Amino acid sequence: MTIHQNIKSSPPHDRQGSPAGRRRQPMLARAAMSIAAAFVAATLGGFAGKAEAGSKFTLSSPDLSSGSFETRFTLNGFGCTGSNVSPALQWANIPAGTKSLALQVRDRDAPTGSGLWHWAVYNIPPTATGLAQGAGNSLSKLPAPAFGGTTDFLDTGVTGANGNYTGPCPSVGDKPHRYVFTLYAVAVDDVQAAAGIPKTGTTALYSFVLNKGLGSKLLGTASFTASYGH
Length: 230
What we know:
By secondary structure, the chain is α+β, with helices and mostly antiparallel strands. The chain has 2 domains: about 1-55; about 60-230, PEBP-like (Phosphatidylethanolamine-binding Protein, Alpha-Beta Complex). The protein has 4 helices and 10 strands; from the N terminus they run ααβββββββββααβ. The protein has helices at about 1-10, 20-55, 190-195, 205-215, and strands at about 60, 75, 80, 90, 100-105, 115-125, 130, 145-150, 175-185, 220-230. A 5-stranded antiparallel sheet has the order 8-6-5-9-10, with helices on one face. Strands 1-4-7 form a 3-stranded antiparallel sheet, with no helix packed on it. Strand 5 (about 100-105) and strand 6 (about 115-125) form a beta hairpin. The radius of gyration is 31 Å and the shape is globular.
């Protein structure tokens, strides 16, 4: 009788085969699975961070995804009848330490011996992830403190104001010209001040500064090419 009473009074959780013991087993299993899942998530999260850190600096345009310019983005002038709207641009994975970005667009096939510069924007803040369609058609649409640089269409009036975007307009009958968009990531917040050059310096002068003059302050470049002919 005493033994029987002792068995009945034993704590149910001390007996593995008891209802309480059976309830504890799935609870422990779920806890173990949660810990394992947390470990895997943390591990994968670490890998994801590393992959993101090593991702390539890229520049692209949803408006030029076909690789060529529609009439909307070509020049209205010099015999061309486009709308001269600047295409939207987007970029990703700018290098660590970037303090500003600079954009330059050049027709590498223009019959000048040195190409033809169509658009330039300097001191784009590193917080920007792109330029909206039409941002190059008014200096007020650029993200502060960015400014539009001079191009080879200076004082022609075809862009409305110096520093604005100039669309393609190659000579009739030419093979399609290639227009190279290049974005520079630099470790200076004011390219003009860092180089000691005037704000109205030529695009070629700024290109020299960006590609050579800033030395190690150039952190990376991203580019793509679109073509146009008529």
